[in-house]
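Hi team,

As requested, here is the filled-out complex form for the NDP run. I kept the field names the same as last time so the parser does not choke. Let me know if anything looks off before we queue the next batch.

— J.
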Amino acid sequence: MQDQHRRKVVLITGATSGIGKSCAEIFAANNHNLILMARREDRLKQLKSTLEQQFGIYIHTLLADVRNEQEVINAIQSVPENDFPVIDILINNAGLAAGFGPIDEGKTDDWNRMIDTNVKGLLHVTKAVLPILKKQGYGHIINISSTAGKDVYLNGNVYCATKFAVDALTKSMRIDLLNHGIKVTSINPGACETEFSLVRFDGDEQRAKAVYDGFTPLTPEDVASTIYFTTTLPKHVCINDLTLTCLTQANSNYNIKKIV
Ligand code: NDP
Ligand code: 8X3
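And here is what came back:
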């Protein structure tokens, strides 16, 4: 079953926007079937219909909030085995930042949203999918961390902590899964223009846009094509950790423009 050139099944969380949506597009364009998870049903339906028509692939959508473990379990169990007999690749992408400020001014609700989505959500989906990958004896888990998971930055505190956690979990999973033929990769993008800042600044469009003024950030397509590349390597090759930034950003703290 594990033929490098066959049509694969790729499960992507957070597929309705930004990096997740671009991942759906690039895997669809390369003739792979998709399982797409997110909370916004209208966007999921639209994406399914567009990509199925354009590329002649099959897409199964899963309406689920990754923070809710039972919802995630039910969603994974609902995937029709006839059409999707395997899962080759899991992209744990769903995530967010909420707020930007000193730790003592942080809102508990924002902290919970970030920890529950970025850390516990990733765990819920991984735990629900792993029995399938282990049974197959192969698979590839790609966790979307961030440059924020490598270096903390001013006012980033809890968001950075969640991405450091993703980094630690990715390293741990890699070790835990060594005996199961399952690859585990951490992708760590720098600033990438998506709906990320709009969510972080609670819908403030001007503030969100200002984040990317004065330099050319990564596009979600840049990140998705890098993720796609990590899935095209020979069976015996695993990229463990990959950081990508735009030309003018070196890491969380050094960009020709300070992100404020
Ligand atoms: P977007 O806001 O554009 O997309 C986020 C996606 O996550 C949406 O599809 C959203 O779907 C989904 N999502 C959020 N919360 C949940 C939830 N509770 N359950 C299910 N799905 C959820 O942001 P990005 O594309 O930028 O972010 C994707 C990932 O990349 C995140 O993990 C982010 O931390 C990371 N990242 C982003 C960078 C950037 O600069 N943009 C840089 C480095 C990493 P819906 O609302 O429909 O549920
Ligand atoms: C998102 C990029 O720089 O806002 O992870 O933390 S940054």
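Two things worth flagging: Residues 9-259 form a domain with the Rossmann fold fold (CATH 3.40.50.720). Residues 146-148, 156, 191, 196, 252, 259 surround 2-hydroxyethylsulfonic acid (ligand 2) (CB under 6 Å).

Thanks,
J.
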